[in-house]
Specification:
Blueprint lengths: L8 H8 L3 E9 L4 E6 L19 E2 L10 E6 L2 E2 L23 H13 L5 H15 L5 H15 L6 H10 L2 H6 L3
Antiparallel strand pairs: 1-2, 1-3, 1-4, 4-5
Helix pairs in contact: 2-3, 2-5, 3-4
């Protein structure tokens, strides 16, 4: 069942005035865009619950904050000009990555979350360097372990905060978590 999303007040006000506003998109958990111009007054009953391309569940709101998934711009009720819609990888409300985000994008999410933690500036720079190397292609398991070990050593208790831990555990496989003592 598709849940009605929250729309930013600015978009609802702009819609009521016939001005430029942002619509919601319906995107499956694998990243297939099913709809890109749903408004606050749309009937969400017609949005498919499961993707007809892959069978994954369809979302129209961020699972973390409930904000609509960013769709196309519209003026009043009509989509604005000719637009191609590319699915966003991050929520523009809370900054969280959507399920279809790539590994690199999830590393960026971790970097953003760690930026909000109390970490020494020198340690933060080292952590950013480790994360950049983790984004590079072709890193073997031994190299990946060394990079994560460096992050664990510098981030300390910041890795225990709920959002950071959730993203971290999604990036580091079970074998490496055991090796790192996590």
């Amino acid at each position: 069942m598709v849940v009605k999303p929250i729309f930013p007040d600015r978009d609802v006000r702009a819609l009521s005035r016939g001005q430029k506003n942002r619509r919601a998109a319906a995107v499956c958990r694998r990243g297939h865009v099913r709809e890109h111009a749903l408004g606050p007054l749309s009937s969400y009953r017609d949005v498919e619950s499961y993707c007809s391309s892959c069978g994954a569940g369809v979302m129209i709101a961020c699972e973390a904050c409930g904000l609509r998934i960013r769709g196309v711009l519209a003026i009043g009720l009509s989509p604005y000009g000719r637009q191609t819609h590319s699915r966003p990888s991050f929520c523009d409300g809370c900054g969280g990555a959507f399920p279809w985000a790539t590994r690199k994008e999830r590393i960026l999410e971790l970097e953003n979350l760690l930026d909000e933690e109390q970490i020494d500036d020198a340690d933060r720079l080292v952590i950013h360097d480790h994360l950049r190397r983790l984004m590079a292609e072709g890193l073997d398991e031994k190299g990946e372990k060394a990079e994560w070990k460096g992050i664990v050593a510098r981030a300390g208790s910041a890795l225990k905060s709920g959002p950071v831990q959730r993203v971290f555990e999604g990036l580091v496989n079970a074998y490496l978590r055991k090796e790192l003592g996590l």
